[in-house]
Design a protein that fits this description.
Chain A has a single domain, classed as ABC transporter involved in vitamin B12 uptake, BtuC. In chain A, 70% of the residues lie in helices and 2% in strands. Chain A has 15 helices and 2 strands. Chain A has helices spanning 6-21, 23-31, 36-52, 60-84, 92-107, 114-137, 143-162, 176-179, 193-210, 212-222, 224-229, 234-260, 270-280, 292-311, 319-348, and strands spanning 181-185, 189-192. A two-stranded antiparallel ribbon of chain A has the order 1-2. In chain A, α3 (36-52) packs parallel to α14, α5 (92-107) packs across α12 (234-260) and α13 (270-280) packs across α14. In chain A, 52% of the residues are buried. In chain B, 64% of the residues lie in helices and 1% in strands. In chain B, a hairpin with a 2-residue loop joins β1 and β2. By secondary structure, chain B is mostly helical. In chain B, α2 runs parallel beside α7 (174-192) and α8 (194-204) crosses α10 (217-242). Chain B starts with 17 loop residues before the first helix and ends in a 42-residue tail after the last helix. Classes of the chains: A mainly alpha, B mainly alpha. The interface between A and B is large, with 56 and 60 residues.
């Protein structure tokens, strides 16, 4: 229904399969483009972690890694939806912070309030996503400015509401998804709820991207004019992407709040970490290329990198430097590979003079 | 400035362009704020308030002017806050309280900043890393270096140089004058030099620019170097105000505020349109808001909310106006007409339409063959 490049269709389908079936397909995927770079990088980091700490892959440590990585994976899925449609969402960090603070203030330690407040958080996430999406698409404000504005608004509003410091407390049942899991699983010990939720969302996102909506989203990111001419309602698709991102941020907030508790700094800088994760997965800023699975792998890579830093006893202050260098190197490597693929794209659509553009191309 | 003024009547239907609109918005905002403050029984234009307004605008101004050049080239620089923080440290440790080392300190600071800009530019153009990621990564690298090596204040700034932060002539701080001088230089650079024109060309369409014989990397790298150097100047200003090097100033969120000022000034975030004159107005608007919020004793958290709303609303207004102009420029929707276009060749290039001097009036130069 949409002029979706066959390459992207193939990429999504393959990686969707490789995610669930395991090593042989994953190895096969390494030979092709798309998720190859990030999968290789992740494997490399895991190998280094294993040499440092051989017990890392023995169930419980791996599960605690998964528990810690789950929120970033979920945020990366949300950010992927927005980035692949050609936009940015800088508001997710502030939204996570706001949601955690809202939860603490409204629940205030009462078990009975847990579910209603989670429902309210979802509605709040929905509203924030709608505002981001509609302002970006209908008022044609560049998304970097829209979401920067939402970030400022959420940051200020929540602090004004709580008088500067978060008040209240989370209930015990609110903290279950972020902290606990299914006990007594053989080999693994405890299967964290966070991992289950992240897996369900990741599989759901893979199927979403293979649905007509997902195809339209990628087509919109690739070339929104062409998508519009093919009957995609660009504004609606992009708004849905923003809503998806905000809802994912809300889920991540529930996990982060449960895992780490309430502080004034919750969510600080998470938007950049999520974007880093997505981009590390080879998803192109500006839209139209990359898969959800690659974004998920990117998030795992970032989290594995943090774990590695801890194991190497790097001073925590130097970690940003190493992180920065690795992102630049990984993206430079991916860009080099994209260069090799360029002739094929040009051959496919010779009549498109603005095919190669620096940075993002969106309207 | 150097162009003879064009009478308004030359344009049959004088339509305010974006820069004119920004200055109009600034004037309206000032009038509205003055009225609001007066209604509360105060006076917005007391010496203290005016000095406060100008002082706020100088720091953001340096950052935003550099950012304008980078954004015009369709790039982005998220590292400016970190570069400014690093610059305070370099300046303070090099000067080390010795007045005779002021020049050395300034030189070292601007040199280091320029090298960072060069690295940014080369990573963006040579390695083809998305500028968002390249400069974010560079910012993280600098952050790691600063956090590891400088826990507290470092070095000291001699009193002679601290004067840069505090001296003022009448109500105009010297730093604001320097900022306006840099802005003027940037305007002239964009409208009078070949590289300046090439920046618009590359930002408008890098591929077309390349096919027209522009080495599209050069303007982008130049813009990144200049952007980092202005961030270095901002760092010098911060160092002069604090009297010492403070590595933690990067947490001020300067890079996003600078981008907001640039976009508020009417520069198109995707490059090729806009200019420094608008940016200066954008900076003054943000500074005015801050000053007014201060005078009215608005809760600092509400301030963030209002700022967010205002930036979004302002950009939405431009987006509404900007659209028709776009259509007219490329009526065939893709292939540019074979007339002389911006950056098609060096020589008497048509001036970028959305960047007239505030002094020469808001009438845009007619673009031969394109309008």
């Amino acid at each position: 229904m949409t002029p979706n490049p066959t390459q992207d269709v193939r990429g999504t389908g393959d990686s969707g399969g490789s995610r669930r079936s395991g090593a042989p397909t994953a190895l096969a995927a390494l030979g092709r483009g798309g998720t190859a770079t990030v999968a290789l990088l992740l494997a490399l980091i895991f190998v280094v972690i294993a040499t440092q700490n051989p017990s890392f892959f023995e169930g419980p440590p791996l599960m605690s890694f998964a528990k810690k990585a789950a929120p970033l994976v979920i945020l990366a899925i949300g950010q992927y939806l927005v980035i692949v449609s050609g936009e940015f969402d800088l508001s997710v960090g502030s939204l996570v912070g706001a949601q955690v603070v809202i939860a603490a203030r409204l629940i205030d330690g009462q078990e009975a309030m847990t579910l209603p407040v989670i429902g309210l958080m979802m509605v709040f996430g929905l509203v924030v996503g709608l505002v981001n999406g509609l302002v970006t698409t209908l008022l044609r404000v560049p998304s970097i400015i829209t979401t920067l504005g939402t970030m400022l608004i959420l940051f200020g509003a929540v602090r004004y509401w709580t008088g500067g410091a978060p008040t209240g407390a989370l209930s015990e049942s609110f903290r279950v998804p972020g902290r606990h899991g299914i006990e007594g699983v053989p080999f693994l010990g405890e299967l964290p709820w966070a991992l289950v939720i992240a897996l369900v969302l990741a599989v759901g996102a893979v199927f979403l991207m293979r649905s007509p909506f997902g195809r339209s989203l990628v087509a919109t990111g690739d070339n929104d004019v062409a998508a519009a001419f093919s009957g995609v309602r660009v504004w609606r698709v992009r708004t849905m992407a923003f809503v998806g991102s905000s809802l994912m941020a809300t889920v991540a907030a529930i996990l982060i709040g449960g895992y780490a508790g309430v502080t004034a700094q919750v969510g600080d800088g998470l938007e950049f970490t999520a974007i880093t994760a997505v981009v590390l997965g080879g998803v192109v800023l500006g839209g139209g290329r990359g898969t959800v699975v690659a974004a998920v792998l990117g998030a795992l890579t970032v989290e594995a990198l943090f774990t590695l830093f801890n194991q190497l006893y790097l001073p925590s202050t130097i970690q940003p430097s190493v992180q920065g260098l690795i992102i630049i190197a990984a993206v430079a490597y991916a860009a080099r590979r994209g260069d090799l693929r360029l002739p094929e794209r040009l051959r496919r659509r010779p009549a498109h003079p603005t095919e190669r553009s620096l940075g993002t191309s969106r309207r | 400035m150097t162009r003879p003024p064009i009478p308004l009547t030359r344009n049959p239907r004088p339509r305010l362009d974006t820069t004119g609109l920004v200055y109009l918005a600034l004037v309206l905002l000032l009038a509205l704020s003055a009225a609001l403050v007066a209604a509360r029984g105060g006076n917005l234009f007391t010496t203290a308030n005016t000095v406060d307004l100008f002082t706020r605008s100088s720091l953001l101004g340096f950052l935003a002017i550099g950012q304008t050049l980078v954004i015009l080239c369709r790039s982005l620089d998220l590292s400016v806050g970190y570069v400014a923080a690093l610059s305070t440290v370099v300046a303070a440790t090099t000067m080390a309280g010795d007045p005779s080392r002021v020049l050395l300190g300034v030189g070292a600071t601007l040199g280091v900043a320029g090298l960072i800009g060069l690295a940014n530019g080369l990573v963006v153009t040579r390695l083809r890393v998305n500028p968002f990621i390249a400069t974010l990564g560079m910012g993280l690298v600098i952050k790691g270096y600063l956090d590891t090596n400088f826990q507290g204040p470092a070095g000291s700034i001699p009193a002679a140089f601290q004067a840069f932060g505090y001296t003022r002539i009448g109500v105009l701080p010297v730093s604001t004058l320097v900022m306006l001088g840099v802005a003027l230089a940037a305007v002239l650079f964009l409208r009078r030099t070949r590289t300046g024109y090439h920046m618009y060309a590359v930002g408008g369409d890098a591929e077309v620019a390349r096919l027209s014989g522009i080495r599209s990397g050069v303007p982008t790298v130049t813009a990144h170097v200049l952007c980092s150097v202005t961030a270095g100047v901002a760092g010098l200003l911060l160092a002069a105000r604090f009297g010492t090097g403070s590595a933690t100033v990067y947490s001020g969120g300067y890079e996003l505020e600078a981008i907001a000022a640039v976009v508020l000034g009417g520069t198109y975030l995707l490059g090729g349109r806009g200019g420094v004159a608008g940016t200066v107005a954008g900076v003054l608007i943000l500074a005015t808001l801050d000053t007014v919020f201060n005078v009215l004793a608005v809760d600092p958290f509400v301030k963030d909310v209002l700022r967010g709303v205002i930036v979004i609303a302002a950009v939405a207004v431009y987006a509404r106006r900007g659209h028709p102009a776009r259509r007219v420029r490329f009526p065939s929707g893709g292939t540019a007409p074979p007339g002389p276009g911006p950056g098609s060749r060096p020589g008497p290039d048509p001036s970028p339409e959305s960047d007239p001097d505030p002094e020469t009036g808001p009438a845009p130069q007619p673009l031969g063959g394109l309008r």
